[in-house]
Each structure stands twice: as structure tokens, then as C-alpha cells.
């Protein structure tokens, strides 16, 4: 089960053309690795990289919404050539503290439309980030963009959580996903538009509390499959997580693989 569902922090509300995504500012990018520390743990990261490395083979691989390089850097350390697309320049600036542009080239742009030269054996999108695209049309374009970058036989992989809508009792407006000493997080949903907002309250070591939020559009697995079909991709595998556990009606997340 994923605990930190969405990228968080104080958001700059200025949006780049042709995208509905929230834009990460410098302050949010500086805090990202610390706020998402559990996602960097070997227990989380090693199965992720193992899974992707098996699919990439000899590569190359392309990560959409590459962020600060949480997955790309250890994947590149396996000898796979990794490139990325990222909307936020401040996030890439943090990646550059860990890897050069020669080691991991990144195109600044929208993952639904930006183009990276070449074809790839693997395109992947992790940590629920496809939900950052807040319209169905942009999400469809993202699948098409992934397919555009794939060599024949290549695979597109996404990691995505299952919306916790079944936990809504009548009249409830939010679903908590993490309640701990340092962090309280909950999601609010509009079940007509499939729009949602993740709310995060964090307490630092000095006892100060900060609030951050991020907006998203949730997608069901069946809707993902339809988007994939529109992009001429075929479902090859769906599991509950990077460890390969079976996907069932009770699963709270999925890792899905489509092949070109």
C-alpha cells in the first residue's frame, strides 16, 4: 500500500501552457526527497527497480515525470540508459545534484506531449504521477505519447493507486490515507468529475505545522486499459505491486504493463 499518494508541498499556481498539472516550485522541490523519504527506502525502491530492469532488458528506458531521480538513478546504476521528461525545472535542478545531464538527459515539458529523441524498450510512470494530469484528454495523450516513444515490442508501465471511494460512508467528504506522529494526509474527491485533492499536514522537529496540497484526477484500471487500447497498446500484466502480488478486487494499488 502506498502511503504518500501524491507529490506534495506548497504549490505555485502558475501553469505551463497545454497542461493541467500543478507546477512544482523551488521550495517544494527542495523538500521532496525529505518528505518522501519512505519511498527511497530499499524495501520500496529495490523491488521497483528490479521490476523495471527486467522489462527494460538492455534498454534504453524513458521515465515520465522523472522528478529528482528517485527511480531513474538506481535504474541507470544497473547499466540501463535512462532519459526523462519533467515539467518542473526545480525538480530537475535537484536531480542534477545527483546525476549529470550526460548521465540522465531530461527534457523539460509536459509528459503528455514532450518528445525525447529515439525509441525506448521501456517507458514508465511511477508513484501515481499520471493523476497529475487532471483531464481525461491529457491522460489519453500521455498513453499516446508513451506509445510514440516505444520501439516495437516495448512496454509502458504505470504504478497507480486504487481510489479509496469504497471507504466513504454517507455524508463523508474525505478519506484519510496516513495518520502518524509527523504527518496526516487525506484525499477529497468529486465523484462526478473524478477530480481530487490530496491534503498534507506535517509537523517538523520543532513542532511547527505546515500544510501542502496537490490536485489530481483518479483513473480506474479499466479506464487505463481503454486509454492503452486507443494508443494501440495491449495489456500484458497487472499485479498489485512491484513485488508481483496478484491483483484482486481488494488491491489498493496496481502496477500495469502494456506492450506495443
From TrEMBL:
- MF annotations from Gene Ontology: methyltransferase activity
Where does the Methyltransferase domain lie?
62-154
The membrane spanning regions, by residue number, are 104-127
Which Gene3D superfamilies does the record associate with it? Answer: Vaccinia Virus protein VP39
Q: Which UniProt keywords apply?
A: Membrane, Methyltransferase, Transferase, Transmembrane, Transmembrane helix
What Gene Ontology terms for biological process does this UniProt record contain?
methylation
What name does this protein carry? Methyltransferase
Which source organism does the UniProt entry give? Answer: Rhizocola hellebori
